[in-house]
Structure formats: C-alpha cells, structure tokens
Amino acid sequence: MTYRLKYDPAAEAVHEAMPPAASETLTLALADACHEPLGATEPYGENDGVVRMIVTEQAFAVLLLGNTLKTITVLQINYLG
C-alpha cells in the first residue's frame, strides 16, 4: 500500500524554494519513500521505525511515518546547497 505524503508548512516552503534540480531529487526520494517507507529512508536517531530521514546530495529531510493511517509527514527540510 502506498503512503500519502503530507508537509509541515515550513518544510513545504523550503522545498518549494529549492533550486529545480535539488527539488526534483528530493521529490523523487520522497516518492520512493511513499512506496517503501523503511527501505527508502534511514533511521533518525534511534531506529524506532517512526522518525526517519532522507539524505540527498543537497538536502536533508526529517519524516514522521504514520503506519496506522499510511502517511508520511515531512517535518523538516534543510537545503544544504
């Protein structure tokens, strides 16, 4: 089952402000996470299977996996540019 992606408003603003190439790379990584949340992400701190991260060459995103409702909430995005 595919997970639904949600954004914290501040994280969404950062993603929208990123240069096109960096934004596209992060978008593709997030799409992969929606299909395979644990396989496409890395643990953030303790491996609890809930708080995860995606690291690309130019960005870092912190995610919250909602396994019951099948959601991934993007809590924070840092553009490393």
Description of the structure:
With 81 residues, the chain is of the alpha+beta class. It has 2 helices and 5 strands. It has helices at residues 9-17, 20-35; strands at 4-7, 42-43, 51-55, 59-66, 71-79. It has a 5-stranded mixed beta sheet with strand order 1-5-4-3-2. It starts with a strand and ends with a strand. The model has no long low-confidence stretch (mean pLDDT 96).
The helix-and-strand class reads alpha+beta
- Largest pleated sheet: 5 strands, mixed
Rough shape?
A: globular
Q: DSSP strand (E) fraction?
A: 25-35%
Number of helices: 2
Enumerate the spans where pLDDT stays under 50 for 5 or more consecutive residues: none
Task: Please count the beta strands (DSSP E, at least 2 residues each).
Answer: 5
Round the Cα radius of gyration to an integer and report it.
12 Å
User: Helical proportion?
Assistant: 25-40%
| Average pLDDT over all residues | 96
Order of SSEs: EHHEEEE
Summarize the structure.
By secondary structure, the protein is an alpha+beta fold. 31% of the residues lie in helices and 35% in strands.
What descriptive keywords fit this protein?
5 strands; 31% helix; 81 residues; 5-stranded mixed beta sheet; alpha+beta; 2 helices
Please describe the topology of this protein.
Elements: E1 4-7, H1 9-17, H2 20-35, E2 42-43, E3 51-55, E4 59-66, E5 71-79
Parallel strand pairs: 1-5
Antiparallel strand pairs: 2-3, 3-4, 4-5
